[in-house]
Amino acid sequence: MAKAFMDDNFLLESPTAQKLYHEYAAPQPIIDYHCHLPPVEIAENKSFRNITEIWLGGDHYKWRFMRSSGVTEDFITGNQPDQAKFRKFCEVLPMGVGNPLYHWSHLELQRYFGTRTLVSAATADELWETCNAQIAKPELSARGLMVRSNVRVVCTTDDPVDDLAYHKAIVADSDFKVKVLPTFRPDKSFNIDRVGFQDYIRRLAAVSGVAINSFPDLLKALDARLDYFAAHGCKLSDHAIDIAFFSQASEGELTATLAQAMSNEPVSKEQADQFKTAIMLHLGREYARRGWAMQLHIGAQRNNNTRMFKQLGPDTGWDSIADDLISAKIARFLDTLDGDDLLPKTILYCLNPIHNEVLATMIGNYQDGKVVGKMQFGSGWWFNDQKDGMIRQITALSQLGNLGAFVGMLTDSRSFLSYTRHEYFRRILCNMIGGWVENGEYPQDWAQLKKVVEGICYGNAERYFDIV
């Protein structure tokens, strides 16, 4: 007899897994230490006009699936009415057999709108009415969803030139108890080979109050922004290392490369790698001095569809997994920082799952015995934050590292509904650990199991980031 679809014991295949999840994992609060939620929407406590805006708006996971299902762009990012867009998504979602979107979408409807109605063309109008009848409730506003999801801390993703005005407004509101902190994301400062670099450097100079005429000037400007972010509670950085790099150059050579780029002259790949390496090494040392954690997201191949990139811009669903080699260059970067005794707490994420074991073993090279899990192999990211991807990441970390020290899941999302991904992760985690116990591979020591599960779901992140 088939199990009920997504019931209370969804993904929990044993009594042990069920106990671990319901008693230990589910009650834990959430530290969402990496996301892309817009701070303005939190500061202004945005209310959503309908289910389409909150459910489909900005969600390139859903957009990619709709495109693959034959839905034209006018029903995705175009100007069709919201209800028509919603109907199109409902019409095609049943084709998503095995796709995590099918699970995520139904979890979002269950947890936030209290409906177990299956998504389909036949139920689209019913769901439209059911969800929109609730959409104006305070618990479905931006802040309401965070509180309802038992979120303690959110770390947004912020550019060094941001004035953090919305973070200041959030802090000033003593009635809102969720802590919202900025994360330092300085990619534009070192992507010297990308369009817009020159304008960005001029803006950074203006915001920092540092005239940037040399490479040391650029570092001074970044340091000023590090201080500014630190003064507003920042304790994390994040970097998109799409293609791993490591190449060193003298200060004079770096200043010459900067001048060349600022004159709109093209730089070579070697010059770009040298420039990126020098900035990343400087920032890594500064993070260590400040006690921050450094996140490296490795291996995305972005904006592949030139035509659609020109039409819609970045982060609209035209990215994929890169297949470059990473181990030697990542090791040289980490080793250089470690050689100075200035390697910060570091989380390495890979988008290509063939690198799972690479990173799971890499982190063991630089643990220092002073910080529990100082070097982390980050959770399944982007194309890997689904059942199979999570299982593979947890398996690699447990077999080659220290799963009990893992800082757990994050949303990496622009959606206020995506906290259900923490539930999805926790169910998968508990099912795996429960399976090991049921199979006699780990003892049924409930005190230790409680410590491990609660740690991975919340406690380890609380200790590691020191932001609660």
What does this protein look like?
The protein is 48% helix and 8% strand. It is built from 20 helices and nine strands. The strands form three sheets. It has a four-stranded parallel β-sheet with strand order 4-5-8-9, covered by helices on one side. A three-stranded parallel β-sheet has the order 1-2-3. A two-stranded antiparallel sheet has the order 6-7. The protein is globular. The model has no long low-confidence stretch (mean pLDDT 96).
Topology:
Elements: H1 15-25, E1 30-32, H2 39-43, H3 51-55, H4 60-68, H5 82-92, H6 100-113, H7 124-132, H8 142-148, E2 151-155, H9 165-172, E3 179-181, H10 187-190, H11 197-208, H12 215-231, E4 236-241, H13 251-262, H14 269-290, E5 293-298, E6 300-301, H15 306-312, E7 320-321, H16 327-339, E8 345-350, H17 356-362, E9 375-377, H18 387-400, H19 420-438, H20 446-465
Parallel strand pairs: 1-2, 2-3, 4-5, 5-8, 8-9
Antiparallel strand pairs: 6-7
Helix pairs in contact: 1-19, 1-20, 11-12, 12-14, 17-18, 18-19
